[in-house]
Write a structure and sequence with these properties.
globular, alpha/beta, UDP-glucuronate decarboxylase activity, Rossmann fold, Epimerase_deHydtase, lyase, UDP-galactose 4-epimerase, domain 1, glycoprotein
């Protein structure tokens, strides 16, 4: 049994990861300030003797004084708003959790000689001029726009990781996560899969921004969690930045049509102005993940959408 910290434990990725780690018999300390995470995501764990929840902001320096964190062996630093809807509403908090919060978690790792995995993002590539995106591409990020609080804060978090790895030899692993989905996404999350599925099942218009020709690559949550755990486990990932995502690329309009078909919805697909700095393309090169982690995604988009739709449909039925 290992003592493991998961920041952002009540969020989408964090709650799925926590569930899996507890299932393996580990002791998990979940930390979340519940700004975007939901307590309902962790309710099932609260009675588990191996789970301890701390409602706390990781950007608060007092976190390093918490005795519960002594002896931790692994830290998954996932805390941060991830949907534009939420990080644009809380820009300063988003900057803080990915900079000050990241340094605090690196200090905790240094103090305990623990491994740390930092959840960075494909948004580090901005609106890319290189396609698909390998890890050595430095990105095309706008520092003066509504997405910058997230994009640039994540990039700065990576810098903190670099400095602690090179100066203090903290065993750091950085993963750049591309679009991830499942029924665990909040219905009001604002990201494309949760939007499309909720709209299709409730008979609302399916809202596509721009002409729908912009592309994304969608990774099912089970594949993502497996990659995070492999990155933490493997020494080969230490000091590396690794793309985690599905290299199969779809246009947003293709996804809207697929959701409409799989739900049997009669919703109309409508088109709206594209938000500022919205990336035109997004697809990972995952050669590094294949080589260092022996990982690649196993669940294709249609199968993942079927699983997601089934759960969303059940939830909506229960609310009626």
């Amino acid at each position: 049994m290992k003592k493991i910290v998961v920041t952002g434990a009540a969020g989408f990725l964090g709650s799925h990861l926590t569930r899996d780690l507890l299932g393996q018999g580990h002791q998990v300390i979940g930390i979340d300030n519940l700004s975007t995470g939901k307590r309902t995501n962790i309710e099932d764990f609260l009675s588990d003797p191996n789970f301890h929840f701390i409602e706390f902001d990781v950007a608060d320096p007092r976190i390093l004084e918490l005795m519960e964190l002594d002896g931790v062996r692994e830290i998954y630093h996932l805390a941060s708003p991830a949907s534009p809807k939420f990080y644009q509403a809380a820009p300063f908090e988003t900057i803080a959790v990915n900079t000050i919060g990241t340094q605090n978690m690196l200090e905790l790792a240094k103090k305990n000689n623990a491994k740390l995995l930092y959840a960075s993002t494909s948004e580090a590539y901005g609106d890319p001029l290189v396609h698909p995106q390998p890890e050595d591409y430095r990105g095309n990020v706008n520092t003066w726009g509504p997405r910058a609080c997230y994009d640039e804060a994540k990039r700065m978090g990576e810098v903190f990781c670099y400095e602690y790895f090179t100066r203090f030899h903290v065993p750091v692993k950085v993963v750049r996560i591309f679009n991830t989905y499942s029924a665990g996404l909040r219905n009001d999350d604002g990201r494309v899969i949760s939007n499309f599925v909720t709209q299709a099942l409730t008979g609302q218009d399916i809202t596509v921004y721009g002409d729908g020709s912009q592309t994304r690559s969608f990774c099912y949550i089970d594949d993502n969690i497996r990659a995070l755990e492999l990155a933490m486990e493997k020494d080969e990932a230490t000091g590396e930045i690794i793309n985690i995502g599905n290299p199969k690329e779809y246009t947003i309009l293709e996804v809207a049509r697929m959701v409409k078909r799989l739900t049997g919805s009669e919703s109309n697909i409508t088109f709206h102005p594209l938000p500022q700095d919205d990336p035109k393309v997004r697809r990972p090169v995952i050669d590094k993940a294949k080589k260092l982690l022996d990982w690649e995604p196993a669940v294709d988009l249609e199968e993942g959408l079927k699983r997601t739709i089934a759960v969303y449909r059940q939830r909506l039925t229960c609310l009626q």
